[in-house]
Amino acid sequence: MAFNKLIGCVLLMAALHVNAQSKQSKTMLEQIAALQGYIQTAEKGYKIVSDGVHTINGIKNGEFNLHSIFFTSLQKVNPAIKHRAMVAEIIALQIAIVQQCKRIAQPSSYTNSVCNNLINESLKDIDALMLVITDGKVGMTDDERIACISKIHTAMNDKYMFSQSFVNRANTLGVQQQQALNDINVLKQLYK
């Protein structure tokens, strides 16, 4: 009987073990099924995030490309602006300033200094003009370029007007000095 009890115990334990193993297997299968559900949900979430990132990238790159095209267009000078009459006038005024300074009848160190400064300043205006009308030098809209050219034109015109006035005064002063010298010489001749 003890043997039967022993066999009964072993069978009972085996049954319990099989039953416990069956419950453990069932629990594991349920956990595997749950994990597969989580994996599918995670894959769907990853796809949504990935698609969103790609969409944002596309929008960002499209926006960047639009900005890039815009800023590149600011580097190009409209040919109508390059060939404006004001541009030619600025250059003509600079040449006229140089010619005005050459008209001084009796140049002195002062008149030479004033003319050299005037010519150097007018050359700076020409350099500024070249920046504005040369492709790739500065990024400006057409309106900004026109406004800048207008300012340069005004500055150059002011320099030209000053050069005319200065040269006329210098020549008048020279004539007056010459007349004064002539008068002194006549007076010296009379009182000799």
- Most strands sheet: none
Distance between the termini: 176 Å
Low-confidence stretches: none
Specify the helix fraction band: over 70%
By helix and strand content, what is the structural category?
A: mainly alpha
Count the strands? 0
Q: pLDDT average, as an integer?
A: 81
Query: If helices are DSSP runs of H or I spanning 4 or more residues, what is the number of helices?
Result: 5
Coarse shape: rod-shaped
Give the C-alpha Rg: 48 Å
Order of helices and strands: HHHHH
In the residues, how many domains can be counted? 2
Query: Strand-residue fraction?
Result: under 5%
Report on the architecture of this protein.
This protein is mainly alpha-helical and 192 residues long. It has two domains: 1-75; 78-190. Helix content is 89%, strand content 0%. It has five helices and no strands. The chain has helices spanning 2-75, 79-82, 85-102, 109-133, 142-190. α3 (85-102) packs parallel to α5. It is rod-shaped. The N and C termini lie far apart (176 Å). The model has no long low-confidence stretch (mean pLDDT 81).
